[in-house]
Amino acid sequence: MFGMEVWQIFAALGVTLFAGFVKGAVGFAMPMIMLSSFASFLPPHQALALLILPTLVTNVMQAFRQGVGAAVGSIKNYRLFIAMIIVFIPISATLVDVIPQPVMYALLGAPILGFSIWQISGRQIPMPTRHRAVTETGLGVIAGLYGGISGIWGPPLIIYLISIDAPKQEAVRILGVVFLTGAIILTGSHLVSGVLNAQTIPLSLLMILPALAGMKLGFKAQDQLDPVRFRWWTLILLGVAGLNLLRRALMG
């Protein structure tokens, strides 16, 4: 069916349900979970295509959970980061067939894992307010470059939010806003690149249902997490994501 075996479809649905739950609970990791899992039984382009539409829809829910006003406020506060991903995701999407996936996985996974271990060990990487514009712009460029190729642009922002010790609700909301912005650009870019096509679009649409179901369950878990535990789980999942990306890099 649409280039996939029945068992692959059910496996993809299960992965997406779990990924949606994690996203609802901590605000991120859905594309990373989906991509790293899908890549074990699907071709890279198909794995990327399946995560695009559920990522788009779930980020609408996450960005506007506290209303339009709160979302607009987040856009103003993080406008430099958002501007950079708008510019650089389309640019890097054109390189999806040029830059080897293992190289990109390794370059993204290693620093993510290192940052997570550093933070979990009790060390901090303070982010002085006077350097915010430069840091936000630089991380936005990095996120955009990785996003167009791999569908993953969240880790640089997550690292930034942890470094400035952003409150839980604000952190989850801005992740949703930024992810939504990137998801819109990513969807348009890969309609042009051909990753989203007549064969992959129906499957990507199918993944929306388990993603939404998982996310609603995750929202309930998020509301019960205190800030310390939320931060701890964020770092753990960030580290796991880094390990998965390195695993994919080594497996080629």
From TrEMBL:
Question: Where is it located?
Answer: Cell membrane
Homology family:
Belongs to the 4-toluene sulfonate uptake permease (TSUP) (TC 2.A.102) family.
Instruction: List all membrane-crossing ranges.
Output: 6-35, 47-65, 77-96, 103-121, 141-162, 174-195, 201-219, 231-250
Q: Does the keyword Transport apply?
A: yes
Coiled coil regions, renumbered to chain: none
Q: What is its main location?
A: membrane
Q: Which InterPro entries match?
A: TM_pro_TauE-like, TSUP
**Name of the protein in question:** Probable membrane transporter protein
Keywords attached to this Swiss-Prot or TrEMBL record, sorted alphabetically, are:
Cell membrane, Membrane, Transmembrane, Transmembrane helix, Transport
Q: Topology in the membrane?
A: Multi-pass membrane protein
